[in-house]
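Kindly inspect the following:
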Amino acid sequence: MAATTPLLGVSGISVRRGSRQVLEEVDLEVARGEVVLLVGENGAGKSTLLEAAAGLLPLSAGEVFHAGKMARDSEGRRNRPAPFGLTLQSGGFCQDELVEERVATAVRVAGHEPDDEWTAERLEQWGLRHRAKDRIAWLSDGMMRRLGVIAGLVPALASDEPRLILLDEPSEGLDETSISTLSEQISGLAAAGHGFLIATHDSELFGLATRTLRISGGNLSETGAGRHTG
């Protein structure tokens, strides 16, 4: 991957949901080491843009690129992108899966072989090591959210190669200790060259941003330069 190739490239995408035009010819890039925050009112299209960036939604116009490779376009063409992380607002878990199995699956999807000690360390960081052998269905909502965030971060946590991480309201439902852990890990992973696109309304995450973009009326606008990537 060339150093100048963005981890994410969104080129002129438009997305409709039912009769509503949610996104209109949106352009967006996320480079190595960037933490790009998406802000806006509820229903403005933050989640839609994140899901489109992940290649989950059909496009009425435009293309989505991961690390310079087309992941999805408006003609229906799709390619398997490089491993990337994704945490949506809905957990999307198999409730019968064990906590440690969810992390191990995320490691495999990221292209690595799971290691029990590594998995245990990640769960320890998020206060879930004691629940490693429990079924996900037995967890509280807050614990499920922590697990969903861990799984989304795994491609970056497990890789020396820069990875794209997409997070939709990652701090929602987390306690203060977990929000602090989230902030520390995002900051450290961005410093290591991973790139983040985060939809959030949580002001506690605003200090992490290298750029903040507001979505309104189906379009993006820059709201602040944010911190420098070094």
In short: The first strand starts at residue 8 and ends at 17. The chain is about 25% helix and 25% strand. The helical segments are 46-53, 99-109, 116-125, 141-157, 176-191. Strands lie at 8-17, 20-30, 35-39, 61-66, 69-73, 85-87, 164-168, 195-199, 211-216, 219-224.
